[in-house]
């Protein structure tokens, strides 16, 4: 049976396929019919049917003659659209003669498969062969490949070639050219190309704006927007969305309001996609109430809009509001997606609400989103920041797929909990897995080295490994080294490092050095550092408090009074201590010397009870660290009712025996509370976790994971 008979037998199966082909007005030759079917096979990815046609062409000797370039090009088109690039290239190489369509089809196949370098090689071969002159379609493919591969220098050469060929008058060629320059150069080259063009339409401006947005050149993007606004052009929805994205990245509220006004004026603000972009824009610009108004005026509610307004509140650090929005969602009508769960879990992480996180984890499992990398990362982050590093480890181990964010979250989680060795082990496993570390990775690694005192190893990571992976150290990395050296008591090295580092230090670095001076009792250096830091940053309350503590530890009450007077004169206020604890899915918040809680009398009685029990174990109120110069009894009372003690006492009252307590505090835990809670964990046989502004403290059996350094 001939191949042609096989084709005829399959015509019944091709009824649906043939419906795609325009009906001819007059009968076609069989070969023309096959060419049309090849085209339909390519568009529908019917590879096996196309192979049958190819077999027929071979048998009838119609695939290798010069006059049959058209059908051979159709075969190339078939194979490239069916992702059979190697077979397409074999057919291409066997062609005795090629036209520009053949070359373009093969280039397009390489481009769709991600082989941009092969596209450029093939174009050079085309030029050197002299078989065909490039047309506008070839130019478009070449410029796109230059954009995708970042080969701007070759792109400039091709620009000259196509300019000589007179192809720059075509709209698509201009668009891809401008996009290439804006994406790959990241500077004003695309703008200069715009200036050289005789006429710029909306598509050219949109291409330049898209390229600058993708490469992060937002200032140049704003310049393109300014020039586009001067032209008498009618913007479309895509242009408005690009402009909104630009405003979001620039955090430019004034520009954002102008774009929004224009959208309202021309009626582009009612579509769901546009509303989502406007909500996101106002959220990024720090105007969450504006975003809420847009959300409230949107009639068509869907999961994208709900998630976008949640993200706006998350960006504004209004984590409770983000969770409130999630709780109000009708999950049956608008089921949450992976982005919704990620925002909710990260909001819980920032509030350290472990019980709420457990409930949401159950909903994630029920909804089937557990294997999404984004949700898995959020789960690891939630457990790590809520105090349960073991649950974070389990969530990490249970992930099927991991990315760099996963590893960074786990490494930084270990470091935040003071588990430096575990953090470094995770880093080693990440390297074995073939993941490339970035700047966040090295922040976690350097903090891990600081916690375990690995000075030499930390300096090796900073001086050698970061260079190897082309990670440029920034202020956070330099601050980690200051903490590493000063925590190890190497104050001379820390001073020399800060003096010679090619960076301008901020108040965080000076506080790190000052805190080390306080913990290591190097009060003379601490006073010098504090004086300089106060001179440079007169409004930072943390420096004043640390200096006051240094004077108090030295019993220099006159120095304490001077610091307090200086703060009053400059209007600097110490941030009040606030602690909170979650019990039975309800969060209880405490301030120092709290008297508003409905059970405050019982809480005070519980504090007196536990303090009386730990005194025989060696507890003595650390009155030297009290900020105010008052009598001894008053200082002891002030210490007794710090917010973390109130939260721990309430937890002891309201939770079952032997159950763990998780407390969060907004500022550094004081020395007295740290000593007291160590002993409370011993007499109560409780595991107590406190997260302060510096790190996590795990209290168990009279010991703390920080080894009394924080």
Defining key terms:
PPR_rpt; elongated; six-stranded mixed β-sheet; 38 helices; RNA binding; 710 residues
Could you characterize what this model shows?
The protein is mostly helical. Helix content is 66%, strand content 4%. A six-stranded mixed sheet has the order 2-1-3-4-5-6, with helices on one face. α15 (237-250) packs parallel to α17. The protein is elongated.
Low confidence ranges: 24-29
Query: Helical proportion?
Result: 55-70%
Please tell me the overall pLDDT. Answer: 88
Strand order of the largest sheet: 2-1-3-4-5-6
Radius of gyration from the alpha-carbon trace, in angstroms: 34 Å
What is the strand content? under 5%
Got a strand count?
6
- Provide the structure class: mainly alpha
Major β-sheet, in short?
6 strands, mixed
Our count of helices gives: 38
Backbone shape:
elongated
The end-to-end span amounts to 86 Å
Task: Provide a quick synopsis of the model.
With 710 residues, the chain is mainly α.
Q: How are the SSEs placed, and which strands pair?
A:
Layout: H1 3-9, H2 15-18, H3 30-44, H4 47-59, H5 69-81, H6 85-93, H7 100-112, H8 116-129, H9 136-149, H10 152-164, H11 171-185, H12 189-196, H13 202-215, H14 218-230, H15 237-250, H16 253-266, H17 272-284, H18 288-296, H19 303-315, H20 319-328, H21 338-351, H22 354-367, H23 373-385, H24 389-397, H25 404-416, H26 420-432, H27 439-452, H28 455-468, H29 475-487, H30 491-500, H31 507-519, H32 523-536, H33 541-553, H34 557-570, E1 578-583, E2 586-591, H35 600-614, H36 632-640, H37 643-654, E3 661-665, H38 671-684, E4 687-691, E5 696-700, E6 703-704
Parallel strand pairs: 3-4
Antiparallel strand pairs: 1-2, 1-3, 4-5, 5-6
């Amino acid at each position: 049976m001939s191949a042609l008979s096989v084709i005829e037998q399959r015509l019944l199966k091709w009824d649906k396929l043939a419906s795609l082909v325009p009906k001819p007005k007059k009968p076609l030759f069989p070969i023309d019919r096959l060419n049309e079917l090849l085209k339909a096979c390519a568009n529908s990815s019917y590879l096996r049917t196309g192979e049958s046609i190819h077999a027929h062409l071979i048998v009838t000797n119609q695939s290798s003659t010069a006059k049959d370039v058209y059908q051979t090009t159709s075969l190339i088109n078939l194979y490239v659209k069916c992702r059979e690039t190697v077979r397409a290239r074999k057919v291409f190489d066997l062609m005795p003669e090629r036209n520009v369509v053949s070359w373009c089809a093969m280039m397009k196949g390489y481009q769709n498969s991600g082989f941009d370098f092969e596209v450029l090689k093939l174009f050079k071969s085309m030029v050197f062969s002299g078989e065909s002159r490039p047309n506008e379609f070839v130019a478009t493919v070449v410029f796109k490949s230059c954009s995708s591969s970042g080969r701007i220098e070759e792109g400039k050469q091709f620009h000259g070639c196509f300019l000589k060929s007179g192809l720059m008058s075509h709209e698509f060629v201009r668009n891809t050219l401008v996009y290439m320059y804006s994406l790959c150069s990241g500077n004003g080259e695309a703008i200069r190309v715009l200036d050289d063009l005789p006429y710029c339409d909306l598509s050219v401006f949109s291409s330049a704006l898209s390229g600058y947005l993708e490469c992060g050149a937002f200032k140049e993007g704003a310049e393109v927007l300014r020039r586009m606004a001067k032209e008498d052009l009618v913007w479309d929805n895509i242009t408005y969305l690009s402009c909104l994205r630009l405003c979001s990245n620039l955090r430019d509220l004034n520009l954002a309001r102008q774009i929004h006004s224009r959208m309202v004026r021309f009626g582009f603000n009612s579509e769901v996609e546009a509303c989502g972009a406007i909500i996101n824009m106002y959220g990024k610009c720090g105007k969450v109430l504006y975003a809420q108004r847009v959300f409230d005026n949107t009639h068509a509610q869907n999961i994208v809009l709900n998630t976008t307004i949640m993200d706006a509140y998350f960006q504004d650090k209004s984590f409770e509001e983000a969770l409130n929005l999630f709780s109000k969602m009708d999950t049956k009508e608008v089921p949450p997606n992976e982005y919704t769960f990620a925002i909710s879990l990260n909001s819980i992480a920032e509030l350290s609400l472990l019980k709420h996180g457990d409930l949401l984890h159950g909903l994630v499992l029920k909804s089937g989103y557990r294997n999404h990398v984004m949700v898995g990362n959020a789960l690891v982050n939630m457990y790590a920041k809520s105090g349960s590093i073991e649950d974070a480890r389990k969530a990490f181990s249970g992930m099927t797929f991991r990315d760099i964010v996963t590893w960074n979250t786990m490494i930084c989680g270990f470091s935040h909990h003071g588990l430096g060795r575990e953090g470094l082990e995770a880093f080693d496993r990440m390297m074995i897995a073939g993941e490339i570390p970035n700047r966040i990775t090295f922040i976690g690694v350097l903090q891990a080295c600081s916690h375990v005192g690995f000075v030499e190893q930390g300096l090796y990571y900073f001086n050698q490994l970061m260079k190897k992976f082309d990670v440029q150290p920034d202020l956070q990395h330099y601050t980690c080294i200051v903490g590493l050296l000063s925590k190890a008591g190497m104050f001379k090295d820390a001073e020399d490092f800060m003096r010679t580092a090619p960076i301008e230090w901020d108040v965080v670095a000076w506080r790190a050095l000052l805190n080390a001076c306080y913990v290591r009792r190097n009060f003379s250096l601490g006073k010098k550092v504090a004086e300089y830091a106060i001179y440079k940053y007169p409004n930072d309350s943390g420096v004043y408090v640390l200096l006051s503590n240094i004077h108090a530890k030295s019993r220099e009450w006159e120095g304490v009074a001077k610091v307090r007077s200086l703060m009053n004169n400059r209007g600097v206020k110490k941030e009040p201590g606030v602690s909170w604890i979650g019990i039975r899915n309800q969060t209880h918040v405490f301030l120092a010397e709290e008297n508003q809680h409905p059970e405050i009398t019982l809480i005070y009685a519980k504090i007196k009870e536990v303090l009386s029990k730990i005194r025989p174990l060696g507890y003595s109120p650390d009155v030297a660290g009290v900020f105010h110069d008052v009598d001894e009894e008053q200082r002891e009372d002030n210490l007794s009712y710090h917010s973390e003690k109130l939260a721990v006492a309430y937890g002891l009252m309201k939770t079952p025996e032997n159950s763990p307590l998780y407390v969060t505090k907004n500022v550094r835990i004081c020395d007295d509370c740290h000593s007291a809670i160590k002993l409370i964990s011993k007499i109560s046989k409780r595991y107590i976790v406190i997260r302060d502004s510096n790190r996590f403290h795990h209290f168990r059996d009279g010991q703390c994971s920080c080894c009394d350094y924080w």
